[in-house]
Amino acid sequence: MPRRYPTKGKTRSKRKARKKVRSQEWLVVGIIMALIVIVAYFSEPPLSVQKKQTRPYPQQSRVVPHSPPVTPPAPADTREKTKPYPQQSRAVPSHPLETPAPADTGEKQKEARKKERNRTKPSVRIAIVIDDLGQSMEPARELIALEAEITFSILPNLEHSEDTAQLAEENGRDVLLHMPMERKNLAGKGEEEGTLHSDMTPQEFTSAMEMHFNSVPGAIGINNHEGSALTENSEAMKFLMAELKARDLMFLDSFTAPKSIAYATAKEFGLKAAKRDVFLDNYQDQPGYIRGQLDELARIAKKKGSAVGIGHPYGTTLAELKAWIPEVQKQGIAIVPLSQLMK
């Protein structure tokens, strides 16, 4: 029988069949490989879990010794050289560009003085207030030169009222506004401009106060200049203390009238207040009288623990103060700013 050769069409169909079989075989192989990979992946824990299992607590694992003990450090004297004194090293600037802080001035000096006074508070204290300042700068400079913290009480609207207040504040002295108030006996000398009167309207009263405060900057409170009539007037004192309360100021009753209700009204309104114990120089030309009044002030302070004296910038008063202050300081009596005795 003669040999038959496949026709062209049959050959092509066989090739297509073989290719189809091969494709199916590779598909099966691919599926098998994918299954192997999946099984292998899920048969082991994730990498993060392996890490946690092998090194659960890194900090603890470091503590466990895996090598021979480390040799001890250098001898004690060597360590002292490498680690000198921690307290001193902190004081050295940490950066080459750092510079020491500037010297304390102004507010910082005042705060430092307050802290020092609070640390060493004496048992017997005297506050000396000098009234009627502002007419000249010379008495103010003499008071600054005294080795004591005298309180400045400045009359408003004078030629040197503002300059005196500034000098006192720069030197850490307490400043009061010496508020002019109505007196009983109007004969003789006239009244200061803007003197507070009981017959003023509220607007006139507050306007006069505002004018006075503007001329004595930095005042921490007031004391009455004269005022024998006004300080006995209940309504006027209530109005005055309400104004001071709103300004957060202190009040010193100069006690120019035996029936003054100024101090009691100030306490009623919750103000820090004090009352004068001794007038130092009613007879300004008698040094012996002034010295006697200063000694009386010291006696009262020893009895009560503190006392307030009021004087004026007379030459005799300043001279007696200069001689008397070192004597009482040797007795353990401190001359303090009035603000320390305000309660």
Task: Please describe the topology of this protein.
Layout: H1 8-43, H2 47-54, H3 58-63, H4 76-82, H5 86-91, H6 107-119, E1 124-133, H7 138-145, E2 151-154, H8 161-170, E3 175-181, H9 202-215, E4 221-226, H10 234-247, E5 250-253, H11 262-268, E6 273-275, E7 278-279, H12 287-304, E8 306-311, H13 315-330, E9 333-335
Helix pairs in contact: 12-13
Which key features would you list for this structure?
about 350 residues; TIM Barrel; 2 domains; about 50% helix; about 15% strand
Tell me what the structure shows.
The radius of gyration is 46 Å and the shape is elongated. It folds into two domains: 8-47; 119-185 and 193-340, Glycoside hydrolase/deacetylase (TIM Barrel), CATH 3.20.20. Helix 12 (287-304) packs parallel to helix 13. It is of the alpha/beta class. Helix 12 (287-304) links the parallel strand 7 (278-279) and strand 8 (306-311). Strands 1, 2, 3, 4, 5, 6, 7, 8 and 9 form a nine-stranded parallel β-sheet that branches. Residues 46-72 and 75-102 have low confidence and may be disordered. Helix content is 48%, strand content 13%.
